[in-house]
């Protein structure tokens, strides 16, 4: 048998350090390690691997990605997942969500060409009306905002989310306390079993507590949720300040109305963005976020 005949293709469904769980097209899972010292794989990658044992292999090559969702600060880049169809940002009526972090994740998705929607959880709580109002600017800019009570009304949540997720690989992002684990366990009945399989494969349960993991929601393996670890900061250093307005759907339509080609949309005369802000077409909170990010990126 030639070397090329032994090479197979697989999907990266979990990883920790230099250990990756690869799933074959038949559904078999095994541990693979990248060749060499560099480790560039992320969950969602399609890779070519070469068997080195009954349940182990080496990653030879990563297929070209159609997208990559990541954050970048001054010191490092953190990749969440590759080749995803959409981003589901999970927020809740309680605890109150940080709008800056929400905006940053949406900007990163826009920059990567990834569709995004927001799920507002805990609609059964009295704080829900205020949380819904805070998301009004996002609805106005065309972002789908779904509402649910994952614990209080699980059947309704499952019915509402099913069509939105069907046939797609969806990365779930959200701070702790919003109901991410509830969502995963509700939609992926075998989630705990999948976690156990990965833990055994990696030989330690601790590997899956802080790592991104891929969950199939159906037996045919056409619909997936990708759970990601929480984060405190979401850097956007991959962007230049001049790209920022173009990645914010509520600001973008007014950029072409500016008098100056290099307008920063903060103080210049004849600025289309500031004019839209003045007449209420852009919310003050969103423009404040833009200005804070401009200062950070420049």
Explain what this protein looks like in three dimensions.
- The chain has 298 residues and is an alpha/beta fold.
- Helix content is 28%, strand content 26%.
- The protein has helices spanning 3-6, 99-112, 128-134, 136-140, 154-165, 180-187, 191-202, 272-278, 284-297; strands spanning 7-16, 19-23, 29-34, 46-51, 56-62, 68-72, 77-82, 86-92, 115-121, 144-147, 169-173, 213-216, 224-227.
- The strands form three sheets. It has a six-stranded mixed beta sheet with strand order 10-9-8-11-13-12, with helices on both faces. It has a five-stranded mixed beta barrel with strand order 1-2-3-5-4. A two-stranded antiparallel ribbon has the order 6-7.
- Strand 12 (213-216) and strand 13 (224-227) form a beta hairpin.
- The longest helix has 14 residues, at 99-112.
């Amino acid at each position: 048998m030639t070397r090329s005949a032994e090479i197979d293709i697989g999907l990266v469904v979990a990883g920790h350090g230099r250990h990756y769980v690869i799933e074959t097209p038949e559904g078999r899972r095994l541990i693979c390690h990248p060749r060499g010292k560099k480790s560039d794989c992320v969950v969602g990658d399609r890779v070519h691997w070469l068997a080195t044992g009954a349940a182990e292999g080496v990653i030879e090559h990563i297929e070209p990605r159609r997208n990559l969702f990541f954050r970048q600060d001054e010191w490092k880049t953190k990749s969440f997942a590759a080749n995803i169809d959409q981003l589901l940002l999970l927020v809740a009526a309680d605890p109150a969500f940080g709008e800056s972090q929400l905006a940053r994740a949406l900007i990163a998705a826009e920059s990567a060409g990834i569709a995004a929607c927001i799920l507002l959880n805990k609609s059964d709580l009295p704080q829900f009306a205020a949380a819904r109002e805070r998301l009004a600017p996002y609805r106005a800019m065309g972002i789908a905002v779904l509402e649910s009570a994952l614990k209080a009304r699980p059947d309704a949540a499952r019915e509402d989310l099913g069509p939105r997720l069907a046939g797609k690989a969806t990365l779930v992002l959200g701070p702790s306390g919003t109901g991410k684990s509830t969502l995963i366990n509700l939609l992926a009945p075998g989630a705990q079993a999948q976690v156990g399989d990965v833990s055994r494969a990696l030989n330690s349960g601790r590997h899956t507590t802080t790592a991104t993991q891929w969950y199939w929601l159906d037996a045919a393996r056409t619909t997936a949720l990708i759970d990601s670890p929480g984060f405190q900061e979401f850097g956007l250093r991959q962007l230049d300040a001049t790209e920022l307005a173009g990645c914010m759907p509520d600001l973008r339509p007014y950029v072409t109305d500016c008098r100056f080609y290099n307008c920063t949309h903060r103080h210049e005369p004849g600025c289309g963005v500031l004019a839209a802000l003045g007449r209420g077409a852009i919310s003050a909170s969103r423009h404040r976020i833009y200005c804070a990010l401009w200062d950070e990126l420049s």
